[in-house]
Amino acid sequence: MPTYKLTYFPVKALAEPIRFLLSYLEENFEDYRFEREQWPNIKPNMPFGKVPVLEIDGKVVHQSTAISRYLGKQAKLVGKDDWEALQIDIAVDTLHDFRQVVANYWYEPDEALKSKKKEEALAGPVPFYLEKFDQLAKENNGYLANGALSWGDLYFVAVSDYLIRMLGSDYFEKYENLRRLRDNVVNIPSIKKWIETRPESEL
Amino acid sequence: MPTYKLTYFPVKALAEPIRFLLSYLEENFEDYRFEREQWPNIKPNMPFGKVPVLEIDGKVVHQSTAISRYLGKQAKLVGKDDWEALQIDIAVDTLHDFRQVVANYWYEPDEALKSKKKEEALAGPVPFYLEKFDQLAKENNGYLANGALSWGDLYFVAVSDYLIRMLGSDYFEKYENLRRLRDNVVNIPSIKKWIETRPESEL
Q: What SUPFAM superfamilies does this protein's entry cite (chains A, B) (predicted)?
């Protein structure tokens, strides 16, 4: 069994999909969470100055989505052929487009501009994306692609606490097919166990 | 042979990697370029309201990176195993992080803020990324990953005109390993032919 060490801030956000996938694989992993004040010392040692970073048998890899796809292959959660793998990739990249819409106001330092940007996002793009994702989950029987569980579903649910915190409202309450998607993921025994035992964090 | 129809603005930008890969595969494709004024009519018919969109035998797929990875698989440009595929995925997602740094000022509507953001980006993050990418190309013998040509190299070179236009300077002049990378891609006969015959566009 490979050894895994994950390095990230003490939050879920972009590391949580990796934690979900390692849990799904029933792999032990070191879940190293550094405090914000340590970041200036850690950042220069990270490839491209970013986290999450995963060490697999001491070899360092980065990029949340790329790592999740890699682990998804180990878990046989990448669809049955290249076409199905493409549908999963499309869903995850579109989730990141949605995340950009939300992050665009969330990380705006100017408070007045932040309010304005948030208002604009919530008035149009946010419900647009959520409705489209809900439709996708409806068409795919409670999953994002191919009518079956994939690493994309784990990704979507793993980052949802982060997105919901930035949005200020829980989209699983409003969108029933996204709720089905969430339930399909959180009721997987290995994921359920991870969620019950993971450290508390707001994001 | 499948039929392909690509739909995008009349520019290179995020569609050009798909055009590179279809050219590399020596596939004929309809390269449908709509004018900006047509966009409001086209947008509602696009999945998630975005382009590029590719129709493969009439089936619609979207997301530039996801499509390029899929075509990269057809072209056998995805590395020899899952680990190599991961290295390529990391490079491409990091390229998108870099693109976000540049797009963050380029698409800023407020002119004063745009100047300020551009100055900050050019003072730090932009050379940081370019030096890291140059180092990566050096370590990989003029490629981004695994010391061999991949769809990631085609992606990097295909979007470079767009990035260079937004940056206002040609990084291939300054970074010799990125220049090697570019030359490795543009000297592939099928890519060379595409570049010589493609429509002119600024981005």
A: GST C-terminal domain-like, Thioredoxin-like
